[in-house]
Amino acid sequence: MAGRETTTRSSKRARIQGTQARGRKRDSNTAFVTINSQQNDDATGTEAQNGMTNTETPESHGREQSPAARYRIWRKKGSFHDSTCFECGLPDDLEICETCPRSYHPSCMPNNSAYANHDGLRRWFCHICVDRGWHLNLPPLTPPDSPIQTPVDNTALTTSTLPAIPRDSTLGSEPSNPQALHSASHPVTELNGSSTSKQTRPGASTRKPAARKSRFTTLSNDVDSALRVLYSELESIPLLRQQISELQFDNTRLHQDLSICRNEVALSRGGIEKTRRLEAEVTRLKAEIADQHKETHETETLRTANEGLKTEVETIQRQLEDSNKTLAEWKNKLLNLVGD
User: What start and end residues bound the annotated signal peptide (predicted)?
Assistant: First the structure.
């Protein structure tokens, strides 16, 4: 009998402890789900703009997101753009949209897309973002403030804790309603001063949870302002990264232009040196031609003089022959006179 009573007591104690543990586990799971739901409501519940079909994300737990909310999530993730054209699916020479991941070739751009100047830079916006008017006013990077609700007295939602279980030498009989241990008490979890779980009490009416309040209602104005400034600076990091990427692209392009200019200068210098050498060669050839002309002129002069001398020699030879004939005749005549 003693062993049977000990076994009965142990089994009753184990069932009671298991019931309490399951109740606490369910309460903690309920509080965790409620906290996550409130955080997701703070991120997406207060954002509303017209346009674009809403899609679901794991962070929203099935709640629809506005285009501005998806824009902020996209900026927080780094503002990455598609590496291929949205129209033809080919890469290279893409024009990226300023406020969405779409990319287009210049020849594939939709007709109602537009360029606009923001922060002194020329930006391109696809037809979807133009229809939303984002080419005129960029969507805000920070969500709008949630309306501050009237504080709700949390004491009305608080219930009594689990009543103590009387222990006697025999531990009493097993409770007739095991669910009473679970519904008797739920710990109240508060997040930023608002109740996130509702308690039930036998005989009491069920009340709705307090309305959701802003994440910053319990903070002082200085801390709230500092958090907003820090939040804005963190959200500006993707924009700064994009500007750095654009500056790096411009720097690379300028380096290429500088290299092209240097090559052109080097080619110009080579052409100038070659021109100088050619001019020197032309001057030398002109001098040689002048010398050749001079020599040719002298040769022609000498040839003419030589021909004149030849003519004079021939004339003198004829005169000499005539003189010799005349002399021979005079000799013959003289001999004839002497012979007579």
Answer: none
List residues bridging with 337 in a β-sheet.
Answer: none
Kindly report the backbone phi and psi dihedral angles of residue 125, in degrees, each rounded to the nearest multiple of 5, phi listed first.
-125, 135
- Within 10 angstroms of residue 235's Cβ, the number of other Cβ atoms is 15
User: CA–CA distance from 114 to each of 134, 169, 253 (Å)?
Assistant: 10, 85, 24
Place of tokens 């002129």: 297
Q: Rounded distance, CA 85 to CA 63, Å?
A: 30
Q: Return the pLDDT at 142.
A: 73
- The C-alpha angle with vertex 257 and arms to 254 and 258, in degrees rounded to 5, equals 85
SS3 280: helix
Q: Do 148 and 217 touch, CB atoms closer than 8 A?
A: yes
Q: How many angstroms separate the CA atoms of 182 and 29, rounded?
A: 14
Report phi then psi at 103, rounded to 5: -135, 145
Distance between terminal CA atoms of the chain?
A: 218
Segment 143-154 shows an average pLDDT of 51
Q: Which of 113, 117, 137 is nearest to 125 (CA)?
A: 113
DSSP per residue, 207-263: -PPPPP--TTTTS-HHHHHHHHHHHHHHHHHHHHHHHHHHHHHHHHHHHHHHHHHHH
**Domain coordinates in residue numbering, the chain:** 242-340
Q: Could you give the maximum distance between any two Cα atoms of the chain, in Å?
A: 218
More confident residue, 152 or 64: 64
Q: Enumerate the β-bridge partners of residue 123.
A: 116
Over range 252-280, report the average pLDDT.
93
Do 208 and 195 contact (CB within 8 A), yes or no? Answer: no
| Measured CA angle at 262 (ends 260, 267), to 5 deg | 95
Instruction: Check pLDDT > 70 for residue 290.
Output: yes
> Mean of the per-residue pLDDT values for the chain?
71
Nearby residues of 129 by Cβ (< 8 Å), 6 or more positions away: 97, 98, 99, 100, 135
Q: Looking at the chain, list the stretches that DSSP marks H as alpha helix, in order from N- to C-terminal side.
A: 2-44, 67-76, 127-132, 180-183, 221-339
